[in-house]
Design a protein that fits this description.
With 287 residues, the protein is an alpha+beta fold. Helix content is 21%, strand content 17%. The structure holds a DNA duplex (16 and 16 nucleotides). It comes from Glycine max (Soybean).
Length: 287
Amino acid sequence: MENNKMMGVKIQDYASNMESNNYPFFDFSEDKGSLGSMELLGAQDYSPLLDFPLSPHVSGPQTSSVKEPPETKKECSEVTNNNQQPATPNSSSISSASSEVFYDEQNKTVDQAPEHQKTKEQLKAKKTNQKRQREPRFAFMTKSEVDHLEDGYRWRKYGQKAVKNSPFPRSYYRCTSVSCNVKKRVERSFSDPSIVVTTYEGQHTHPSPVMGRSNNFGSVIMSGSAGNYMSQYYRQQHQQVHIDALSSLGFLSSSSSRNATFPQETALLSDYGLLQDVVSSHMFERR
DNA sequence: CGCGTTTGACCGGCGC
DNA sequence: GCGCCGGTCAAACGCG
């Protein structure tokens, strides 16, 4: 793995970067015990991210026909071939690392009505009236044995599709909470099956049913999708690590041409809601 | 029985 | 217009 600077990737560049293993992510799977550090495994100096136009679909280079996924079932407890540790959907068993990679700053106009509460006709009518607006999306890569990472929310799977040029399927989940229209997609990296790419869309309108609102970082009402998920995720999976992760991000994006707006760790602890801004703006700042 | 998953069908967007 | 593709629906099914 090369050790270039880590930046974000445009979501449309993501797949192609994955093809060449040039995507940023952290790995602290070697440090499961302390959860105190993470290692940048690979990254590249990616193109600017601030105003990247997120394509409606995450699509990579289309060089071949779709291959049938060899393992398309039970991705919630799937064990990848390069790891023999037992994989369970529980957070305690997850050996993972993550760093968010892209965040859709566009398409801020969101459809607030819960998709799953609409009738077909309503959906149809809506779609005919205007182009479908997407929630802000936020994705990150996780080195994990399990596809569906425990993030404190309850999800219901509503679809699965084979991913073009990848043997691994993509799963579609919706938050089970009523009036919460958050969705997420989970797929495994084609080039590195140990990496799971999770893409969140929308914002939770409720606190985490699992986490509640109290943890080491105090009561949290998330604002902003990225912070919502990332904070939630890190608080649960690596309560200490997220600080290191952000520090690493600061280090990684320490290009001299950028504005240095990375806050102090102490600020992060109190200013929880800015995690997404911290990370996103920080990572996406360079252009 | 309730809830979540599976899976084929369907739909809309998009490129040719 | 047609076909491809990503995303979603919904009935059937599984499980606790």
